[in-house]
Amino acid sequence: MLSLRQGVVYVVRASLDAAWPLARPEQSLLTEPELHGVGRLRFPAHRRHAARSRAYLRSLLGEIRREDPQKVPIATGPTGKPYCRDGPAFNVSHSGGHLLIALSRTGRLGVDIEIMNELPEMDGVMASHFSSGERSRILQHPPGQRLKAFYRCWTRKEALVKALGGGLTLPLHQFSVDVDARKGNVLLAMDLPGTTLQAWRILPLEAPDGLAAALAHDTPETAVVELDWQPFGSPGRNRQAPV
Questions:
Q1: Structural domains for the chain
Q2: Handedness of CA 174, 75, 218, 243 (dihedral sign)
Q3: pLDDT bracket for residue 107 (50, 70, 90)
Q4: What's the longest Cα–Cα distance across the chain?
């Protein structure tokens, strides 16, 4: 059983392509609306990953709340951000078969993971969503390193956007992050209404080669623990490493 300690943000990693560890199909963990949403996805791999991502989330929340995973009260806020009534706080991201789930007792969380696919429209995305400082720093990298710098920047900004719950309607150019490969808080500047630079941390996360990942949360004194997680009570699979 995973128990959330006060003052800790947990980041759970899992593979959506690993052998499914549950005796019954993952679809049995989802609600009818969730199954309907998954069924609308075009490609079978996307449907499988979406179903497993939601099943992992429900299983994890069920373990924490000590209740049937299918009955965990996951709702959607006014901006479309999912939340769990009566807690815990969570946020989810998956890219390909890679899944991240951030959890804490309280606070606002955002997590993002991205496969670093080639992006022909990279310059346009930077012009639309990055600050002038971010664009300048990315372009200072050698050409062969710019895509990695772009994705480091994108995941860090997306993590904060998801934590705030405003989607891409938020003016992304009004806050800036460090685009280099390093540890620790990478939030450099913020000019967003209703919040302050001091209230937030954006942290790079460990990710396999070819991926970038980041976490944002609004409790700066909080510790962060990353977990490799195998749900449903499988022994010997959970490893913890503090950030």
A1: 1-9+16-103 (3.90.470.20), 108-218 (3.90.470.20)
A2: negative
A3: very high
A4: 52
